[in-house]
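Researcher: I'd like a structural prediction for the single chain below. Treat it as a standalone chain; there are no partners to consider.
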Amino acid sequence: MTQNTGAENTHKAGKIIRRILAVLGVLVLLVLSFAVFSYFHLKSFFTAPQKVDDRGRLYYTEYTGDYESPFVTFIFDKIKPVRSGGCSAFYTESTDGGYRTGRNYDLPHMDKQGNTTGLNMVVRCSPEGKYSSVGVADVAMFSRIGLNYVQGSLDKGQLTDVLLSLVPYICVDGINETGLSASILALDLKEGETAVFQTEEGKEPVIITELLRQILDNCASVGEAVELAKDRNMINTFGADFHMFVTDDSGSSAVLEWRNNTFIVTYTDMITNFYVAFDDAEDCYLHGGLKEKFIAPAENPFNYRFGYGHGYERFKKLMAVKAEKAAAGSMAMDDSEIMETLKAVSQEYTGELTSLTQYSAIYDNTNRTLDLCVYPDYSKVYHYDVE
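Model: Treating it as a single chain, here is the predicted structure.
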């Protein structure tokens, strides 16, 4: 007969403690989930997700009540599902006399077999006392917290009511009834810098998707979005930083950025994944971020800055389209031109965290609509009105 050593006893005790902690964690989550479910079940404010495309990469749901709740924000702040994304966006006059925002959302998700996947949901919101909106949520983000949400996985009702109550807070772009549009894009952290974590007294802390939801719900112009953002403390998720592109129906567009815990607004009409409020392109070249040390003036006739990050080649393609339009005598683009431009800067999966275009979207700031192509199928356009 053998006797257990002290090390073996310690190991067994450790396993028991870990199991107890795991059970307690599950119990706490269940209690919180039940509280949230009970609160929202009584309100019955969202519809069951409906599959839109054949592959199960796009679904649709509606929220007819006010999804804002201390239960929801508490859980959302704890799980923070938002991760990186390498995207492109631009703002343009349209041939019908209005304004449009073109937007690619680029972020690879993988299933358990290692195949690329995606799970996006068109979200129409009409909370009482706030602006109605329509946007797109990346539901596959929930896989980051240990779940497995991939294309087609919602066909069997696999999205719980608790998580459904959080979906308005994981929209990565959208437009509201006033014509204000907002889109989130990822940034790189420069060596020696730290991710944003503002702590100014008296300001509400938010992560980037919470701010997007608040802007869509409450703001009618770029100016109002800027003022709301000024009154918030931005905090990072998992060490990642982001910036936000906001546009409206008056011809105004801006990028909201947070660098070194400082909030900066730059009025510009296109954006990818580098800071636009700064010009450290030479530094980027030295660290492999740019293929050329300087962008020739002929390639940058609009004097854009090239700050730290990535996505320069996509940005240069957008610039080339704009320069070609200017040379032809009109900057206006119709919807087919906008979608073709988005297709030109879309990304195949390369193994990098910011590759693989999930969808291309046209937000019509004037008519308050969304046209959506689920990558890589540009032959089908799904159309949604805010109202």
